[in-house]
## 1
Amino acid sequence: MLYSQRLNQFTREHADTVAALLCGFLLFLGWFALHLGWLGLAFLLLPAAYIIGGYESAREGLTTLFKEKELDVDLLMIVAAIGAASLGLWRREYHLIIDGAILILIFAISGALEGYTMQRTERSIRSLMSLTPDTARVLLQGREEEIPIGQLKVGDEIVVKPGELIPTDGIILSGYSTLNQAAITGESLPVEKTVGAEVFAGTLNGYGALQIKVHKPAQSSLIQRVIRLVEQAKTEAPPSQEFIDRFEKGYAKVIVVAGILLATLPPFLWGWDWETTIYRALTFLVVASPCALMAAIMPTLLSGIANGARQGILFKNGAQLEKIGQVRAIAFDKTGTLTTGQLQVFQVFSISEYTQQDVLKAAASVESYSEHSIGKAIVQAAGETVRVFSARRSANAERSVGAASRREGKAVPVESKLLNPKGDLNLVDAIQVQAIPGQGIVGIAQEQQIIVGNAVFVQQYVTNLPEELRKMAQSWEQEGKTVVWVAKNPTPNPSPQARRGAEVMGVIALADEVRAEAAATITRLKKLGVEQIVMLTGDNQETAHSVAKAVGIDRVYAQLLPEDKLNIIRRLQQQYQTVAMVGDGINDAPALAQASVGIAMGVSGSDVALETADIVLMADRLEKIAVAIDLGRRSQAIVKQNIVVALSFIMLLLVGNFLGNINLPIGVIGHEGSTVLVTLSGLRLLK
């Protein structure tokens, strides 16, 4: 029973593919039956192949004909196939029935590929909708009650507990917490939110409970706008697609009209007999069919897709392989794309009495009790620094290196007791640890009070901040880095009078690490002739410009919401036509959908970004963007060559047919030969 259900589900989801496979299988059996002389069996199998493989094309062609009064290639292919089969039966040249079935099989395969492309939009929307919970916890007469999101009204008060997703946009009435908004706004650090601040649906609440007032309908929330933007961008046909549709309809009209004229006029104009006239008209339909033109494109694109897959570049459809070669402008998201998306310790600076390792060790002792991303980064850096520099040194060597490194503001490679004999991180146990949201953390370690936090917070415990460290901190902050001050008080529980008796040990700068290959990738893209490269981010101006400067991007747009990114992509498209967008987050989904080519990071990317994008970099290697562009340009060149060859063959066959120099078998051989030739040409991209 379960197997039957799965089979039915697979058949529904892949109906076009199943039809193409059955058509090919029946075609093979019919050919085999003809080869053995079993005409009865062949005449059962081949019509079945025609019906199964050509049903969808016939339905679409007839629908277009009767409803839109237009002729398209679908109907032309059916007419050509039936014409070939009829001629084969009339002249008892049954191999022509096989030729007609091959034409239908090619179109059935094409229809299956188009079906998969259409299904992708629906998956994108479903993934977006999964970002928000189905219910919200509403306060009704002092009691909490869960109701569906759709029933929320403006003015309702909802409760969000630590670790839960925000169900809808709203204003905080009470509570304090940090929210991870990276999925919506792209900000690299959790954002602190308190009374009066706006929160967005789909963002993740941190450690604090929040009471939120709904200030807009749930369907107007930011995440719902993202969903609608993705739907809209995916349904807007690009100009190139519209051109292809017009060309297809025009081509079909010309061939059908020419075929009708060729089947009726020659007896009156040139005195041909009707058998010769019909024979040449059917030959015309076969040789004029666009199979060679189709083979000029799809095998090339499929070969390019296979080539890209071997190099970690996933093209979701062949059209995007063509478009990536036409890209004139590229927009990069910052967090998780140009950067790793992971906060890391960038540099440590200490005063003369302490080493940088002392500063890290002190900070890590209390931060090990924190769930904040800053604390995790400090603890990780403390452990990694010790592991890297665990070689034993003499006391004099340590002092010498320490003094030199302090002058340069670099981490000191000295041995520390952070490691236990087994080589694991062994932080000093801290007690009475107290975190002050948005400010810092305090605790007692080795009978000393350790203070870690921002400058304003630490100044409550020290008399003054060293001028040298203050200048260093200001310099780091101007570069967009987060600065953490570290101080200690020899008195573990100082009295209010002795509270400001602590002394500063040093400062720690943290930043989202820029990907190692980012700068080289930007340089390579400029050499390839990409005219405009920009950065789009929800982060602040200082951080954005710092990263842009590091990687070589001159044009930066910061503090953007998802719809802002989409509008910028639209403006770029007006100026540069073909624009690529590279991103990894949910907030990038509308821009990825709107861009001519959406490129997502495969490892760090969200499910929505991966579903929405046209190209996925499976190993998050930015340098593969340049490889994809080069592959796209090569595919364009081969496609153009193949189109010229295909059209040349068609013209020669048409002229030969009109002059009476070829018969139907030669026409079929020429038609199929040109198809094979351009197919083999397209396979060059497999190299």
Note: The longest strand covers residues 339-350.
## 2
Amino acid sequence: MQVIDGLVSRVLGESAAEQFVIRLEDRKTQTDYFELSSKDNKIVVIASTALAAASGVHWYLKHYLKINLTWCGCQKKIEGEWPTLQETIYKQTPYTYKYYMNYCTYGYSMAFWDWDRWEKELDWMALNGINLALSLVGHEEVWRQTLIELGYSNEEAKAFICGPAFLPWQWMQNIEGWGSDYTDEWFERRVALAKKIHTRMEELGIIPAMQGYSGMIPRNFKERYEDVNTLQQGFWCDLNRPDLLIPGTPMFDKVADIFYAKQQEIFGVESPFYCTDPFHEGGNRDGLDVGHCIKMIQDKMLQHDPQAIWIIQGWGGNPDDVTVEALDPTHTLILDLWCEANPTWQERKAYKGIPWLWCVLGNFGGKNGLYGNLQATANGHIEAYHNEEAGKMLGVGMTMEGIDNNPVVWDLLLDTSWNQEKVVLEEWIENYILRRYGKASEASKAAWKVLRESIYNCTRRQEGGVESIFCGRPRLDIENVSTWGPKSYYYDQQAMVKASKYLFVDYEILKDSEGYLYDIVDVTRQALSDIGRFQYEKWAQAYQNKELETFKRESQTFLEMVVKMDELLSAHPDFLLGTYLEQARALGGTEKEKDYLEWNARTIITLWANEKGSVLLRDYSHRQWGGLTKDFYAKRWALYFKALEEALESNTTLEEIDWYKLEQTWTVGHNTYPTEPQGNLKEIIKHIQDIYF
């Protein structure tokens, strides 16, 4: 089958594609299935759809060739003959949908992807059986044209639309205009990219979830149309929130008609799925008949597409009971976004018969800390599927805020989405090690036992992993680095030291595995961060006790740890700031546009917002990356330690530092950073372990 041959050729080469014989047959069941067998030295894949066939190919690659395809550290080595299947393998997923992407994923991980990067992601999605995915690329053109149709000038329309890194929060109706400085060419390029993405999705059998209209309008809309019925939505994290055009009014109908017509005209996509959340994370509902508004939004959606299914994010109290009662269950799908830690379907009585998906959120802000609940990820969805009180649970979803982290979590969820019975996690992990490293050494098994029982066994509700103290804006009483980050540990901090040491034992044996190299850096990074907490307490206590020499010694050791962290991160290609910034600049057509895109990229991972908004949002998307750690975080700490030392020496109160000014200066910079690994990774890890562990 040509589309699958092309996929396998892109991932593993043409010779690998020749090993498979693909046949599609008339669907025998409601959900996807595949059948694997061997014949004439070929692997025969019989499947219900092209997407199921891709999943069948991937199943063989994973479980028989022991290949690991992921975002961070693939293991693609094929050694020896391809294993012959002694019996027919049959797998059928119990789920109608396997959904992918949070709105935030586009801002924290995908804002600056080109076609080459999107093509890799689409291949990965198909191999993992993802059949429904949020589609946002190019959506800014829908809004540009909609506003122009409503009488806005081109420049006014562009000013309403947030910068590329911040667009997801506009489409969730949280903000408007932040980070905007667009060229007309940007819109053309993004639509062209979107069309390539949609074409490939159609070929592979992945359905794009498009955007619905639920009343968002610019804050100045009422200045143009004085008689319209609008409701100011106030602020989100101290940033301007767009107004709400009351659903069911004549102007709402007019804007919605333009919106849906423009979206269809621009993209031409045939998809029944539409995403929109009118009251995401707050919003003003004063005086609104919410139930009536919801019904009007859905009625207008159905008017434009009688098959429309409204996808709603189950998050932060939404959808509330009034909304649930007003929705047409036959045209709605709810994403229970955080089921591995905070499932709401039980308390919400399975959304009273509305179809819903069991989702894993896992990551907040794109931060790259180790974190997860592997037991819940492996079996939580299976338990829900068999629970009589789960109502219409139709599948699973990956709704992380950022990708390129914790690959084991997502590999586990997608692999077990083909299961109808619970899995034994210990056995699955042992097979995972073999696939990820190419070999399953005793030391690597010991490391993963520690990881499984500690950092990947988070049974409490918290927003992502424990944050690295090195990334915190300096102060004497840091509990959490970002506003909503966790304030304490749920595991023994020495556990990561043990895991790092275990993994390092077999460095020479496993060093040719990309998966191993990624993991040894990631685990050592986490261990050093955890040890950094103890060092933080040492110098902070010395300062409080006014012990100058002790403070100077312990603060210097802390700063050296931050710099050593930068060396570690700079020695691996997946932890480089330079690659990220180069990716952003590459999308610009002129030097000015490149600078603007780089500002977007720098700002979202540091200040996030303007001075007022950054009070809540700064460092929410902090990254432990080579270049950023030394040039941003270490410089903050060095400045702070100097100020503390001067305060001790002069016996005066610490003078306030204008952190925003310092950080804002970095966001507008254009100094370059390495895009290739620096230093000897083995020596760097050994030095860290010898000195700090």
Note: Residues 103 and 132 are 14 Å apart (CA to CA).
## 3
Amino acid sequence: MSAEATNPGAHSRRRGRPRIDLRRLGRAALLGPAARDRLPDAIGHVADAHRAHHPDADLAVLHKAYVLAESSHRGQFRKSGEPYITHPLAVTLILAELGAETTTLTASLLHDTVEDTEVTLDQVRTEFGAEVCYLVDGVTKLEKVDYGAAAEPETFRKMLVATGNDVRVMSIKLADRLHNMRTLGVMRPEKQARIAKVTRDVLIPLAERLGVQALKTELEDLVFAILHPEEYERTRALIADNSSASGALDTMAESFRSVLRDAGIAAEVLIRPRHFVSVHRISLKRGELRGTDLGRLLVLVGEDADCYGVLGELHTCFTPVISEFKDFIAAPKFNLYQSLHTAVAGPEGAVAEVLIRTHQMHKVAEAGVIALGNPYVPVEGVEPADGERADPTRPGWLSRLLDWQQSTPDPDTFWTSLRADLAQDREITVFRADGGMLGLPAGASCVDAAYAQYGEEAHACIGARVNGRLATLSTVLSDGDTVHLLLAQDAASGPSPDWLDHARTPGARIAITTWLAEHPEGAKVQAAAPRRPVPVTADRPAAANAVVDLPDATVRLAGCCTPVPPDAVIGFAVRGGTVTVHREKCPAVARMKSLDREPVPVSWGDAAECRVTLVAESFGRPRLLADLTEAIATEGAAIVSATVEPPSQQRVRHTYTLQLPDAAGLPALMRAMRDVPGVYDVSRTQHPAATA
């Protein structure tokens, strides 16, 4: 397969700049430096592209870097037969067209010198400074002679760690891989496939996370052509067969221009053709394609407010497809992407997808972090928080990746975990109970949130509240959820093997697997075993201090609702002349009234002593029963009886009948019981009684 055949983006509908003739560049490079007053012809294209984004850029350092790269690589040739200098030149041109600043371009010109020539890092540092040296070192491969089969995963580990300090390292690597993929046709098919698979599993997801869509889409097409040649050929034929149908998009674009012009909104309306993989995906989704399916309409405006103005005009003058609307301006994607997405139907019924964004948003959508220039240069008048550099990519996925890679010294485990992590193509944001935020991949559970927030301390996690409601650790979180994680005080607690079924992030899986390996006994220490009801005789007699207007009547407080002063109560006469007293809201009261039972007025006497039944809901843990009984005793209550139900899903239900010396102490007692670690609710019993 030739280099041209592996380049489905050769028609390059995305950029108007023609593809550079690398053979001509190679010949120019072999001629050596030009006169002192101008740049060599071979780097002139880079200079033009760079000046288009940075008119005031100092090109002297690029000239100096080119001279060093050309002289160092002189005599080296690529497998295609081209002078090797054409590769760093092409990589630098890719970055220059995307708007990279001078330091990045300098490092890209030199990115292979330390790896493939006699140039050393010390020489690069001396000639170009520590910043360029760091970038060059970050993309320099580790030697196979030193690392053997682990050289590739360890090289990526080294590169990712370097990216954690400077995202421009990965920008250079992505451009380097793109040019290598463009010229991959000279290699054996099996090597093409191996490189394409690594590109698909690692580089393309990284390009997506850094927001560099211009590189990501072309890499996707190149990988598609190599790994799925039959589908690629069918897609290419499909595009060719429908090329004449693109007039529907032209017609709608002209209608958009007319509507926006009449509304007084200055906007540029462009047709944005889909790349090969996008056409393939939409053909699988929709079957037979229409002319408007081969592209989308892009509307560019000057200000954020104009985006919503355009949206309003289009939804007013055309029929909107409401299900297709997404607002990535108010809620940007984790990779910096901002845009309004919608779809509208024209007069003829043709439906077109529409992207609405500002020119700056478009620049960032295409080039991602590359469009930010040098993100580490302090902005005048803006103080960085806590002395840290303002890097928009560092707080999310990259921080998580750098954290878990430290726990995976084994190259194979790292390589497998890296691919699994990057396969998560969406990210959600959840809010912590303290107001902070956690970035997690879509499909993450409370287990993942626990390890993201607490690290190894999450071994002691016993439950969670999601949006204020109790939830199991297996609960899958959604974007915008609030999660409050509950930890046991027992430091010896550990994760259950079942947690691995719910963990989606490599960090959580690695931490759980490591703990289980270090504790062969396996399962997490469970709550105290189910016990039979434990009767406890109270020191004080049970005395009902409720008074009824029936002479010689025996008064009994209902066990179903355990009323205490100053509850509003009502009584009902039962067999044997006994009056059972219920709280007015007890379900038994409604049942009695439905049977036409006459209520008996009840009032509270002077005696303060009372008996009450409380139910404590908790997560299972060691010493929970002891801690609860200690809290009850500290409040001066006597336990008449207690039962502990068998644990269910790590939850335990305790029921206590208590004798209180004073009913006024009940609120304090319930608070003390709720404060016991692991207890999430304490309530008075409210259930139908067996007898009235």
Note: Residues 1-39, 381-393, 522-543, 688-692 have pLDDT under 50 and may be disordered.
